[in-house]
Structure formats: structure tokens, C-alpha cells
Write a structure and sequence with these properties.
Order of helices and strands: HHEEEEEEEE
Number of helices: 2
Strand content: over 45%
Oligomer: single chain
Number of strands: 8
Shape: elongated
Length: 213
Amino acid sequence: MQFLALLAILPLLAQALPTEYDAIYARKNAKNLSDKDFLLSCPGAAGSPNVQRADKCTLVNIKNNPDKVVFRNLGSPQLNCAGGTTPTSVTLGGSTSVSTTTSVDVNMGISFEGISIGGGMSSSTTKSTETSKSITYTVPPGRQAVLTAGIKFHSQTGNIQVNYGDRVNDHYISFEWFTGAKVTQLIPAGTPPEYQIHETKCGTDAFNLGNKS
């Protein structure tokens, strides 16, 4: 009778063990995985062959940094580079859109586009913003100009808490792991941009805002 009872429950054991084993194996071997493995397992990421998919990833141990202003070009540069000696009146401007950006402090080769990371300011504040503007400007001879928008971002740095879980016979087996790599999020503040004209010498890279010619 005992033998027959064992045969009856074997199918149930066969279904339960692989899932339970995966969770236990991941817990025991977490120290052998890299931060890249954990980050790639976050929802929306490419995934890692070394670890199962995470249920959620959360920014924790958050440190709020000073706000940061990032300048973006609006439209294309307008030129007065035909060799003339008189200024020319042009229209500068266009539109740009920015959203929450995430970066990691070490080169892991990870694109955070599409990765879902909750927690911190990004859960409750504006994640994207769009701005557009056009002006009339007089470009001196031998010069080129583009309108730029300085967009303010809130900055926060922390670590990623990665949560995994499996349900086995209505019992939830879970574990969490904290990455060591520092991750920085920039979240648009939603405040009015600071507009500036970036004027440079003809023949140089007009799109490069570091160009001081």
C-alpha cells in the first residue's frame, strides 16, 4: 500500500521539484552571479542564461544628488557660411523630448532602455517631457547657430534590489539580491527649460555643444 501511495504522488513531486529546485539553486548560487546577470534579469531587460527572470527590480539605498541641467539641440543649425560679409536673419528652433534615463557606474554593456525599475522619485514624478520653441536670430558672417534647451533633471543614485519568486503547491518561495553596482537615474523635473543660442565658427561641428569656436 505504501508503495502504491508513493507511485500516486510521484507525478506531483515531478511537477513541484524543478520549480522549487530553480529557486533554491538560484539562492545558493547568487554569489557566483555577476551584477550584469542580475540587471539583465530585470523586467524588460534582455535576460541572462545564468539566472531566472526577476519578478521586479527596485532602486534602493537611494541618495539624492544635486539637480542636473542637460542641454539639447532644438532643430538644425542655421548657417551664414557662404563667404558673405553681412549678417543674415534666420529662424532657430524645433522640439525635443526627454524621459527618465538610467545608467550604471561600470561598463557592463547594458542598455537600460525598456528595463522596468521602480522605487525612488521615478515612481511618482514626471518621467518624460517635451519642449519646443523657435526664435529669430541674426547670424554674423562666418558663423553658425543652433537653439538649445537646458532641461533640469532630478538625480538619484542607488543599488538595484532584484526580487525572484516561484509558487510551488501554493507556497511562495522567494529571494532577493542587492547589486553592488551604483545605478543613477535622471528624472525630468518638469520645470521650464533654459534656452540658449549656441554659436560657432563655420566648418566646425555645430551640433557639438562642447564646441567653443
